[in-house]
């Protein structure tokens, strides 16, 4: 058996946070929460020097997905994640992975976030090369988990430090592309904002000023986690610092490697990052035992993709800087589900209702835990996709018609949506 060591810690962190985001990522729309002040996008070029590679990306579920070939294979769609603080790529097992012909060996069993500490087996091998945007990287560790291991089923895995440790990585969600630069020659574009990074155990941290409720601003030490789809995760301290606001709702935040992750969702009044300030940011507040997925020290929490991808953002670990340029989504408000249905994020075509929030539109309409959502306004859930489904459920005062399966019976309910957060 091979010992994963730091790989083990990495896997716990990655899976806990990525799977958590499937429940709590903040789609935009509505009118409560915005950038202060709003401004138009700066069209400045990203750098005076061309990138070493330019890679098309897909942005879905608030995740950046990049095509990566392994030993000449057809591309795997991998989530780009600054929260994967070690070399290599992470894949969940499929026939395509088995067909790579890699020499896998059993490795440590892993325990992740949530639940009561259940373990998952892992395997590890080394690929002679991977390719991204025509750029080849040699001798790359490949870590494989069981097919149903908490990762989104519409992706193949995760890549992180394998790129962030070698390049200055620029992500432009608006143009759907990723650029890889040589950090030694990368120049932040005119008009951009440079935020200092601290790198601990190959994971990046920044300072942000956070104001919760009527309290005073607090300087928070936050991990930078592009793989986490929500905007902000805050770890409440025992002295009450960064505690959720009184009107935050208790709910299931997601499902980690070891089970359900619980906590609260609420709005913080203001978040300042560099010289940018955001108002009414939807924020996750996990319960104490779930504050540090995989045992990794996230300090005060982390800033995630819902906030980071409002910029054209460059992660430059070697120069210890985060470079922010205004993106097309910079002034969009932050929103959260307005139905009160907690849907199982691991399903795609049919979405089981795992819980219903008390007093919510779903409860008032008679939806109960155990129902299965199959259609909205006559459209199958499978046809809508996760992003359109999220947007549909984040329209204040809209009425939606949901089709549910309850045992062998199909029923319809009408919900009048309203802000719960």
Instruction: Give the integer mean of the pLDDT values.
Output: 86
How many beta-strand elements? 28
Count up the helices: 6
How much of the sequence lies in strands comes to 35-45%
State the helical fraction. Answer: 10-25%
Distance between the termini: 47 Å
Categorize the overall geometry.
Answer: globular
Rg (C-alpha, Å): 21 Å
Derived from helix and strand composition plus strand pairing, the structural class reads mainly beta
Largest sheet: 6 strands, antiparallel
For the largest beta sheet, what order do the strands appear in spatially?
A: 1-11-10-21-22-12
- Unreliable runs, pLDDT <50, ≥5 residues? 1-10, 26-34, 36-44
Protein architecture, described:
It is a single chain. With 421 residues, this protein is mainly beta. Helix content is 11%, strand content 42%. The protein is built from 6 helices and 28 strands. It has helices at residues 6-24, 95-98, 161-164, 305-308, 361-365, 381-392; strands spanning 53-56, 58-60, 63-70, 76-80, 89-92, 105-111, 119-132, 135-145, 157-159, 168-172, 177-181, 193-196, 198-200, 203-211, 218-225, 232-234, 249-256, 259-273, 276-286, 301-304, 311-316, 321-326, 341-343, 351-356, 372-376, 379-380, 399-406, 409-416. The protein has a 6-stranded antiparallel β-sheet with strand order 1-11-10-21-22-12, with no helix packed on it. It has a 6-stranded mixed beta barrel with strand order 3-4-9-5-8-7. A hairpin with a 2-residue loop joins strand 17 and strand 18. The protein is globular. The chain starts with 5 loop residues before the first helix and ends in a 5-residue tail after the last strand. Mean pLDDT is 86; it is low at 1-10, 26-34 and 36-44.
